[in-house]
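Minutes, project huddle
Topic: does the predicted pose make sense with zinc ion bound?
PN asked that the exact inputs be recorded in the minutes so nobody has to dig through chat later. Recorded below.
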Amino acid sequence: MSRLMYDNVHMLSPSGEFLCTISNKKANWYIKKGLGSWEEMETKEDYKDCKQGEEEFRTIRLNFIPENKKPTSSSSSSSSSSSPSDDLYHKRVKKNECCICSTSHPGFMRHYVVPSSFRSLFPRRFKSHMSHDVVLVCSGCYVDVQKRTGREITKVCKEGEERWKRKVEGEGGKVEGEWMVDRETMEARSKAVAIRKYGGNMPEEVRREHERFVIEYLKSIGRGGGEEDEETKLCDKTLEELGNLGYKTRNPKYKGGAEIIVEEMKTSERKLAEFVKYWRRFFLDVAKPKNLPAGWGVNSKVTLDGIIREDEVVV
Ligand SMILES: [Zn+2]
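Predicted holo structure (tokens), as shared on screen:
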């Protein structure tokens, strides 16, 4: 929980140009794959482009230029791309401090600006640029911002579910519930539990009725019946087993609020981009962060390449 979020490893191009800061994890991945090597810095002058204040950081030099760091062509048909603020965000050293209240006391948490209940359902392209929308907050600020975000998620999901209900019912259909309940199993389970716990105190007639039901149920699932004595089949072990039976299964046709909302937007990358910006704006409004990393902004890019494809279904 309290580990540092920003390692600020400086990443250089093969020619030594400073590209951005990355995590130790990512740098180690490049090293392991043979895509770069750690750089020995003789003096800070060697990397004056990436010198930031008096601090020194580990530096990795890649032996290739990543696709998203290559100069972009202006003839692209899609709307793009890296703005100066995106560049600033990726190049500046990020402080391990609460982005809301600026405390640097340990005990930081990661806050997902775009809630993971939505983002986990996004297409891959929209998940690969997550670091911008994961911010560092102290535990005090975390509780508050999580509470407010939770309320907003509920509101957004409820609106989505209502839209979905109107659409499905408008087409003459019926909205599926989340769970499918096997009523027979539920009743057998409830009666088995009652016999086991309170059988001794039950009126004889009621207990017999319960037992009959449970025995019929056992027969229906291929257990018991035949020549065996009914009483012996309802031993404590069988009743205990029945008391643990599951009677609910998740309805595969059910769609939850987050699923409905992301599905509504999957036909347009622009809608998804707007949704990401909606949550960034929400975060700014409710948390009023005083210490966001330089270059962090509502209009920062939402995909790794900064491209939003027009009129195209995202798969
Ligand atoms: Zn704080």
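Observations noted during the meeting:
- The longest strand covers residues 18-22.
- The chain is about 40% helix and 10% strand.
No decisions taken; revisit at the next huddle.
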